[in-house]
Amino acid sequence: MEKKSHNILGLEHARVFEKKISVIIPAYNEELYIGNALKALLKQTFPRKDFEIIVVDNASNDRTSEIAKSADADKVLFEPRKGTNQARQTGFENSVGEIVAFLDADCIPEQWWLERLYKKLHKNKNHCVAVAGSYMFSWKEGETFFICQLLYQWIVLPAVSSVVGHIFRRGGVLYGGNFATFREHFEKVEGIDTSFAFFGDDASIAKRLGQIAPVEFDPSLYVASSARRFNRDGIWKTNWEYTKNYFKVMFQ
Fold it and tell me: CA 76, CA 242: separation in Å to the nearest integer?
C-alpha cells in the first residue's frame, strides 16, 4: 500500500494555463436555479477573462442547458451518466484552468468568492491541498435553525475538518459545491471517484485529496444555498444522511 504523505509536491509553475480558474457546475434539472448561479459568477471581482464557466448537464430533461448557454456559460457539456461526481469529473476533464473550483447549480456566491479562493490557495499551497467553504441556507435571522447553522459551520465543521485532516489524514470537511484545488492535485490522485452518485460524493473527494495534504475549511468562504432538500425531506433526516455517509466514506 502506498504510504500517505502530507508533503505537497511542488506545483508545475512552468506550465502554461489558458485560464487561472475553471468553475465547474454539475446540473440535473436545474432550470429554476442555474441562471441565478451564472449571473452571480458574471459579477465576480475576479477578472472575467481569467476564468471559465463550465456547466455539465447531467442528463436533464428540462431547459438547464438552454438557460446555461443563454446566461453566458463558456462550455455547456452533456453527461448522460448520472451522478454529481461523474458530472464533476467530466467538467474537470474539459477544463483548462490552473485551479478548478466547484459550485452547485443552486448556490449563489458572493462577488468576492473566486478572488478569495484564488488568493487563499496560492497563499496556503504549501500546507493544504484544497480550500473549502460553507453553505448558508435561507433560515431567518434569530430562528433556532439559523443559530444552529452558525454554530455548526463556525465551530463544529472546522473542528471536525481539523481532526479528520490532521490527525486521521483523510482530507477533512469539503462541500462539493464550494471548494477549489490546483488541477495538479486532482491529476496526482487520478481525478474524482465517479462511483459516488450523491451522498458521500464530497466526502470521497476530500478523502482522495487527503492523500496529499489536509483540506482547509474556511466558513467565511460561504455561498448562499437552496434549502430545498431540508424542506423536502426534513432537517434532521437530511443532516443525518449527510453525517452518516460522511463518516462511512471516511472510515469504512
Answer: 29
